[in-house]
Design goal:
The protein is α/β, with parallel strands linked by helices. The protein is built from ten helices and nine strands. The strands form two sheets. A six-stranded parallel sheet has the order 1-4-3-2-5-6, with helices on both faces. The longest helix is centred in the last third of the chain and has 17 residues.
Length: 280
């Protein structure tokens, strides 16, 4: 596996692959890779001749500097995992390589990027669009792979790709969960064993909420009350939304696709965890 740090080298390598008629898959990551990332990489390896995995902790999508500082960094272990999964290229640039000068571009795709995470983390999705658009430009992939744990992020990236005229297929891949049901996340490594056990209640409650036959408001209140009743968990928001527009829905008849998106603080630090569940 090639480990590339320079944009020019990445473009040159991929041009050679293109000239050979090879298809290219891209898996954008911020590193601290786990089995969820591995599932994306393996799918790309199966569906493309060349798989590029970016490992870049993007500062422009963090509106909390402390969150950025404590985000895990495990480049050596990441590259070992990628090689085991069959990736051909790991792209691990420096911040200076990606942002030799500030990126002043502004992206706006309401309501997709203004609700939920967009409301709670001002500027977050603008930073996501900045880095993902750069990666799309550098690699010009046939397919790009994203995990559905970040459900809203995929919706925003699809809007951005359409807006900028990128032609690749954007592939959404299922959430990979730990045995407890906790959605795999790089942030999970920041949890103690006790906190990780507590965090498993998030998905447990979400799953239970799909079986109760309650209306939308009752379902919302049940999830929030049940999770908040667990010592060490605090819901930041829980939104039951149209799976396409991400707008809150008043009833189960309001949309053909309905998703519940949640963010929960876990532990004393606290660690911010996200998840979602499909109701329809």
């Amino acid at each position: 596996m090639l480990i590339i740090h320079k944009i020019s080298e990445l473009k040159s390598q991929l041009l050679r692959e293109r000239n050979l008629g090879h298809t290219i898959g891209l898996v954008p990551t911020m590193g601290a890779l786990h089995d969820g990332h591995a599932s994306l990489v393996k799918r790309s390896v199966n569906e493309n001749d060349i798989t590029v995995v970016s490992i870049f902790l993007n500062p422009t999508q963090f509106n909390d500097k402390k969150d950025l500082e404590r985000y895990p960094r495990t480049l050596e272990a990441d590259c070992k995992l990628l090689e085991k999964c069959g990736a051909q290229i790991a792209f691990a640039p420096s911040v200076e390589e990606i942002y030799p000068e500030p990126d002043t571009r502004m992206f706006s795709y309401p309501p997709t990027d203004s609700v939920m995470e967009g409301a709670m983390r001002p500027g977050h999705f603008n930073g996501v669009c900045q880095i993902v658009s750069k990666l799309f430009e550098y690699t010009n992939p046939d397919r790009a792979y994203f995990g559905e744990k970040d459900y809203q992020q995929i919706a925003v990236i699809k809007r951005m790709a359409d807006d900028l005229g990128f032609k690749m297929d954007i592939i959404s891949c299922p959430v990979i969960r730990e045995k407890s049901g906790l959605a795999m996340s790089s942030r999970n490594t920041l949890l103690t064993d006790k906190e990780r056990a507590i965090a498993a209640n998030i998905y447990k409650v979400l799953k239970e909420s799909t079986t109760l036959g309650l209306d939308v408001k009752q379902t919302h209140d049940f999830v929030v009350e049940q999770i908040n009743s667990v010592d060490g968990l605090e819901v930041q928001y829980f939104s039951i939304v149209d799976g396409e527009t991400l707008i809150d829905i008043p009833s189960w008849q309001s949309a053909d696709s309905i998703v519940g998106c949640i963010t929960v603080f876990c532990g004393s630090k606290p660690i911010r965890l996200i998840d979602h569940i499909r109701y329809k």
